[in-house]
Each structure stands twice: as structure tokens, then as C-alpha cells.
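Ticket #4471: structure output looks truncated?

Reporter: J.K.
Steps to reproduce: submitted the chain below (159 residues) through the standard prediction queue, then opened the result file.
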Amino acid sequence: MRLRPTTLKEANEFVSAHHRHHKPSVGHKFSIGLEYRGDTSEEWWELCGVVIAGRPVARALDDGFICEVTRCCTDGTKNACSMLYGAAARAAKAMGYQKIVTYTLPEEGGYSLRGAGWVETTRTKDNRSWATTQRPEWKNRGSREDVKQGPKIRWEKKL
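Returned output as attached by the reporter:
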């Protein structure tokens, strides 16, 4: 397997085709693809996973020194998630970030994150609605269907 740069468009197309519960990402700081040799030819490689990283979704974490993996998606290729999480951390470090974070659902094991050196730090409560007293204009915009509701586990890696 090998890593390669990828565009947000290509990464989102992969997410649309393969992710269990997320829609494509709206924006990013960078995206990385992972591909494997599809046959015996050295010239033919096939995309088997992508990672998309950007600004933290939580405003409290958006200090300019924290990067968030907003999507990590594979076709099930063994060790692909760990390779992508590791690559995202190295890229974020090279860009000057001090920490990288991501979130998983409680029913997801987190083995790939542990394998890449990430640490579970927080278990969040149920997602709050975007429509709050501070943002009443969000009330009629509908639910965030691209975000699975419920508690999440935050994972971090200091860079």
C-alpha cells in the first residue's frame, strides 16, 4: 500500500460510496488517499481509503493549533485506517499543528486509532441541537442528518 495526496472532491466521492453513516465533508485543510496495487502491474493502483482533516468542529477546540480528522473511510482493507490516521497526524505535525483530534461512535472499537498512537480522552454527551438561544435562526433549517446523533468518543494525539 502507498499514501498519496488527494483532492477533497475525490475524497468525498470515496466517502459517498463507502462511509457507513457520514455524508461528504464540506471543507478541509488536507486530504490523503491510500491505495493498493490491484494486480501484478506496478502501474495500476486502486484507492482503498481516504482521510479528510480540517478545522475542529467544536468551537472551543478551534484555536489554530488543533486539527480534526472529520472523515476516515476505507473499503475494509486491512490496516488501512491505522495507516490513514498515522499519515494525518504526520501531515498535521508538518503543518505546525500541536494536536490532532477525531471522534468515533461508542460502538466503534477504536483499534485503528490505538494502533496509530491516539488516546481516548473524552466521552461526550448526546449532540446538542444547532438551534440554541444563541442561534435561533437554525431552528427552521432541519436536523443535521450528516451527523449521527448520540454520544461520541474523542481521540487525541499530541504532535
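Triage note (M.O.): checked the attachment and the full C-alpha cell line is present. DSSP finds three helices and seven strands in the chain.
Status: closed, working as intended.
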